[in-house]
Amino acid sequence: MILVIDDNEDIRFTVQEICDFGGWQAETAVNGKEGAEQFQSGRHQLVLVDFHMPEWDGLQTVKAIRKKDPHVPIIVLTVDERFELAEAFTKEGANDFALKPIKAADLLSRIKLNLKMAKLQDEGQTAFIEKGINEDTLRQVKAYLYEQTEPQTINEIQKNLPVSYQTVHRYLNYLVEMGDVEIQSHYGSKGRPKNKYTLL
Fold it and tell me: Any idea where the Response regulatory domain is (predicted)?
């Protein structure tokens, strides 16, 4: 069961239709406070939450749900592309972001990816500890790549995140192994080709 929290009736209907198409049941809440009250750990596999809402905004809602369940995947729906906002949501426990206007293919892909990651965690197959992958850092790398319209080199990513070149390299390798990131080789007029990375 997916919980969709959004004050816009049209968006609730659209997202519910997308969930139906993906084969997931969904129920809705009209604002953050109602959504947090409606959320039940173990019953809801994933939460989709809007940023701008009456009563509680998305940040407050994410914080409240995360207190109830530290593992349920939470995807934020927003028109705001600011990196600072992504950081604030990540700090409160959001896992991913989907930009409005909602694109069905993008949202379906993100729901599948986050359910897959949650399943791995539930099965104890997560590589976070084994491979030295920190969940917060992983979210930062993914959030940065999500904001980019073009593939990025390791140097470009490292300049925009508070982590070292080696750390970015390690996390990108992990995301490539997980099938979340694709490597593209770019050939310039001279020198070796540069690898660039893009979120799938």
Answer: 1-115
pLDDT at 130 over 60: no
- State the pTM of this model: 0.64
Measured between alpha carbons, how far is 100 from 102 in angstroms, rounded to an integer?
4
Closest-CA residue to 48 (of 113, 95, 117)? 95
Give the number of other CB atoms < 10 A from CB of residue 72.
Answer: 22
Nearest Cα to Cα of residue 99 among 149, 135, 24: 149
Angle, helix 58-68 to helix 83-92, in steps of 10 degrees: 30
Residues 16, 172: Cα–Cα separation, whole Å: 33
**Cα separations (Å) of 82 from 28, 89, 105, 106, 148?**
26, 11, 22, 19, 11
Q: What is the pLDDT of residue 30?
A: 95
